[in-house]
Amino acid sequence: MTATPARRDLSADESRRASRGWWDQDADEYQAEHGAFLGDVDLCWCPEGLREADASLLGPVEGKRVLEVGCGAASSSRWLATQGASAVALDLSGGMLRHAAAGGQRSRVTVPLVQADALALPFASASFDIAFTAFGAVPFVDDSATVMREVFRVLRPGGRWVFSATHPMRWVFLDDPGSDGLVAVHSYFDRRPYVEFADSGEATYLEQHRTLGDRIRELVGAGFVLDDLVEPEWPEGHEQVWGQWSPLRGRLFPGTAIFRAHKPS
Ligand SMILES: C[S@@+](CC[C@H](N)C(=O)[O-])C[C@H]1O[C@@H](n2cnc3c(N)ncnc32)[C@H](O)[C@@H]1O
């Protein structure tokens, strides 16, 4: 892979191909690198280490039908199952879902796993009380407004939707945890995705950039009411680097945005 990522327009097809290929091929590496931090049975919202056990962003979950969108190894859904929720874990990537199945065997906490695209959720309308994701799907699809509409559809009236994603202001900087990542080099208003390429020039990884206003407009446009926007602070003593998330940058500006919204009753 070339070492020069760029901000580049991609077609919906290129975006989908890169995302699907990346998450299948990278699943082993992702879990080897981050699995211990995420835990087998735990809901961690972000590299800052904010955990649902402390944050309660989903509200009471006991007896609730919960959908995780872009579950990766599904440790979050397993944690919710231990809290009495009836959780379903969905992901596009078969590689990630293999890790989800293995995590279920290791921990002896299992949840239903579904392979599907967040852009077309294979569930009846109003079938969940809560939907959520920690960095799943939303930052990787070119049409996140459709994800918002799909989640809105599958939630019952009054249902809650919480998702974390890279904080939009991060895309002003290079994808670098060190001091080179402290200098603003991109326009906040440049909506082109961050793309990594193979030597052939084919896109192999991408992350979409939306401004805070874009994200709020997509939520409200789907029919949601926004209840909170959480910007987790970098905790004192937390030294773990995760990709471009580092204590150096985390002490200066936010790395994660967590949107908490609900479908009106
Ligand atoms: C950064 S990982 C996060 C995984 C997990 N939530 C975690 O905290 O480890 C992003 C996940 O989103 C999934 N994903 C990407 N695009 C998707 C889509 N269109 N529909 C469903 N899942 C998708 C990937 O396969 C991957 O598992």
Write a structural description.
This protein has 265 residues and is an alpha/beta fold. It contains 8 helices and 10 strands. The protein has helices at residues 12-25, 27-38, 52-55, 75-82, 94-107, 144-154, 212-222, 247-250, and strands spanning 6-7, 65-69, 86-91, 113-115, 128-134, 155-166, 194-197, 203-207, 225-230, 256-262. Strands 4-3-2-5-6-10-9 form a 7-stranded mixed sheet, sandwiched between helices. Helix 6 links the parallel strand 5 and strand 6. The model has no long low-confidence stretch (mean pLDDT 95). The structure holds S-adenosylmethionine.
Entry keywords:
265 residues, binds S-adenosylmethionine, 10 strands
Unreliable spans are: none
Q: Structural class, from helix and strand content?
A: alpha/beta
Number of helices: 8
E-strand count: 10
Mean pLDDT: 95
Specify the overall morphology: globular
Which percent band covers the strand fraction? 15-25%
Quick summary:
With 265 residues, the chain is of the alpha/beta class.
Layout of secondary structure:
Blueprint: E1 6-7, H1 12-25, H2 27-38, H3 52-55, E2 65-69, H4 75-82, E3 86-91, H5 94-107, E4 113-115, E5 128-134, H6 144-154, E6 155-166, E7 194-197, E8 203-207, H7 212-222, E9 225-230, H8 247-250, E10 256-262
Parallel strand pairs: 2-3, 2-5, 3-4, 5-6
Antiparallel strand pairs: 1-7, 6-10, 7-8, 9-10
This protein binds S-adenosylmethionine (SAM).
Residues 19, 23, 38, 70-72, 91-93, 96, 117-119, 133-137, 140-141 line the site of S-adenosylmethionine (SAM).
